[in-house]
Amino acid sequence: MWVPDGWDPPKRIKFSQLLIPTGDSTRTEYIIGKISKLPVMRSEKRFEPSHNNTLLVGGPGTAKTSTILMYC
Q1: Distances 29 to 3, 16, 68 between C-alpha atoms, Å
Q2: Looking at residues 65-72, what average pLDDT do you find?
């Protein structure tokens, strides 16, 4: 069961800037964190660095951008 960390509201609240963690956003942040900590592997043939990318998918209004902003 994914439970978000405690959230304390800021002293001055701007409604448009509130990012409140939920169970879904907590789980997504965890998975993104795990992917970002994977070792950088290099191509064995071309000796090029690889990158660990993450693609969030979902319908409109599912807080994809907000979750990335909370992670960053």
Answers
A1: 12, 21, 8
A2: 83
